[in-house]
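Database export, one record per block. Field names are fixed; values are copied verbatim from the stored entry.
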Amino acid sequence: MSRKNSKETLYSVLILLPSIILVAIFVYGFIGNTIYSSMTDWKGMSATPVKNFIGLDNYKSLFTSFMNKGFRQDLVNTVFYTVFLLAGTLIVGLLLAILLDRPIKHEGIYRTIFLYPMSLSFIVSGTVWRWLLAPSGGLNAIPTWFGKNQGTFQWISSKKQIWSFNWQNVLQVLSVLVALLFVVFLISAIASQDKKGIKKNIIVIAALLVFAFLIEPLFPAGLSDEEMHGFNLATLGILFAGTWQYSGYAMALYLAGLRGLSGSIKESAKLDGANEFVYYWKIAIPNLKPITMSAVVIMAHISLKMFDLIYAMAGTDNEFTGHPSVRMYTTTFRANKLALGSAMAVILFLFAAMFIIPYMVHSHKERVQ
């Protein structure tokens, strides 16, 4: 290496070093401290906090203790929040992008209108949606405009639950679903004679089996009573508000992807007799796969940070719209159970990692190729 190149390398390292040190301390250092705190009995704020190491007891309590039954429902709510927010924002955003991709007048105005909700904070939009979904007015009052009786649906306070399942069976159900999913991928890799795919799926299945063995103590078969959890209809109001706010963002991503497709592709499709529907369904949408992957990661990440929206719409004491972030706040700063709150934070961190890490690995492989 020449003297000039070595100097440039040294300068580059010196420029990046402060940022690396700050990130190491204030990001990864704090994450590590939170993980450690979650395995202690830390309670209450004090100048000299007492932390005694207790291992995974806090996690066992969250997944098995009767006192933390609400947290388990919050986890179930999180799954539904993620699935339906992803489906809603991606479908609505794609439809809006397709509409704007066609030649229409005043496109800029429509694009601004669709993007406007994203510029609002969750607190502002949550307050407005709380008024709209009030039991005695808002959307429930619309039937009175046509001489009908006022609606009675409780958008954010309904106590009705559907799709219920027994928490005692959650580990077995998840294990079967994951195993079936990867068996399908493995069969597909074998059928296509993809040796790398076969090896990758075997490694993944082995890792999942090891992971299931490690977390099995957190799901003992010994819950005293049947514990049912499911989809609370009170979360519909939260889902509508979240979908309304971020569909415009998904639309912007998809519209950029559609505009990035070569015009010759569309012209060729028309010459082959493809109509608008066939073009978008068979050609355009499959080419938007990278955009969809990015949108899925971003929206999944947002679904894990819905504290402010739920706080503004339903408050912190509404058990039917619960979310781990809200319960983490009340457990940590109201009940002063800092170790238990740290355990909830770590679980949310792992949820986020489930989406972000595979995406980063996939993106890195694409850049290398």
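Remark 1: Strands lie at 161-166, 228-232.
Remark 2: The mean pLDDT is 82.
End of record.
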